[in-house]
Amino acid sequence: MSLKNKKPNNQLKNWAVFSGIGIQMGVIIFLGNLLGKWIDKKFNITFSEELITLIAVFLAMYTIVYRVNKINK
To answer: How much is the pTM?
Structure first.
């Protein structure tokens, strides 16, 4: 009987964790984009917004892979 009670809680916990991962990914990419825009304006260059946003995307993907692997253990 305790297994039945644990399974829905575990599924709810996983759903909450995955929702948080999506939000975290969006925040990382958004902040990377803002940082790139700021660097473009500060140093009067044109390539840092795209470069830093791309780095933020890879960082967000790495974070997702790391957290999913941690959940699966």
So the answer is: 0.77
